[in-house]
Fold this sequence. Notes:
Shape: globular
Order of helices and strands: EEEHEHEE
Number of domains: 1
Strand content: 35-45%
Helix content: 10-25%
CATH topology: Aminopeptidase
Number of strands: 6
Radius of gyration: 14 Å
Number of helices: 2
Largest sheet: 6 strands, mixed
CATH class: Alpha Beta
Distance between the termini: 27 Å
Oligomer: single chain
Amino acid sequence: MIKCNNITIGSISYRIQKKGSVRLETVVLYPKYRNKGLGAQAILLLLKKIKNFKRVDLTVHPHNSQAIILYLSLGFTIESWIDNCYGDGEPRLMLFKNKK
């Protein structure tokens, strides 16, 4: 859960993968809390929590420009384009961030 002043405003989830990496699976904010920097803060807090992992990756729909801009601003890099990534006929971009 993502909370602000003890109010749930969204959710964030991740999964630990093999070989020292983490997959960021979900970042969702309720609409009235978007575009206020709260998503970036939640991701930065998560990155601190998982600081001992070498790599973080995620997928995002290529039309979700706001999310892509956010991830790029946080140091993620576009790695690849995946057609029909989840079997829904839609493509996704794979992004990653190597941590030092």
